[in-house]
Amino acid sequence: MDHSQTQGMDHSQMEGMDHGSMQMQGGSAPADARDPHAYSDGITLEEGPYALPGPRQLRLADEHAFYGVLVDRLERVDNGEGHALTYDTRAWFGYDYDKAVLKAEGDIEQGRLAEASTELLWSHALTTFWNSELGVRYDTGHGPDQSWLALGVAGLAPYWFELDATAYLGDDGQTALAVEGEYELLLTQRLVLQPRAELTAYGKDDAERGQGRGLFELVAGARLRYEISRQFAPYVGWEWATALGNSADQVREEGEATQQTRWVAGVRFWF
């Protein structure tokens, strides 16, 4: 807009102007416009007075490889009839967009590994808060060992809910689905309440492995931890588990309870 047109006008006169007569910025740049790439004065990462010899020194964050290990649950579980040691860990190595992820969880009873599940996945960033996961899983423990192909998504849902949903294709055409969700409620800067729920389902009956078609098991509970540091926190908690559908029928036939209440105590740490 030519500002000389508005000199001497009061505010009401300016409001009454025909905005169609204003010359708005747009179209091609003027011939004397400065090159937007010229602000560096010809200095680049490889040339100029500040360039360092040898390979490029400056690298952006998404060009670096990162790694980490999180032991989310390492706890003693007491269900009133006995106790066990449970672990749930994950480790990762890679870049912002692509990384290798190792997940491992299981139960140790009477000094022996009673049940275990291990996954090796390739994680790829889909959006800012969500990753896709593709890989394999291997289960040992109840019945014959079992291998799976895994495909899922994991990320942070609105209102800060952490969700993990994975579909599996296993031996003899067996299929499975596991959905896990949790939330961290900060009671203070160090005291954190973490509700958690996990639901599993199978595509067909497998009595040898104790898998019933349809919904299999629901586990829900909460853990209260105190973060001595951000990387180390002891906790106590309570958990309720129930068998569902055909799996509940199999449990009843074996003369066992379909529901369990568990008290847990453990530590959470990462590095």
TrEMBL record:
SUPFAM superfamilies: Autotransporter. GO terms for cellular component: cell outer membrane. Pfam families: CopB. GO terms for biological process: intracellular copper ion homeostasis. Residues 1-10 have a biased composition (Polar residues). Coiled coil: none annotated. Residues 1-38 are annotated as: Disordered. GO terms for molecular function: copper ion binding. InterPro entries: Autotransporte_beta_dom_sf, Cu-R_B_prcur. This is Copper resistance protein CopB. It comes from Oceanisphaera arctica.
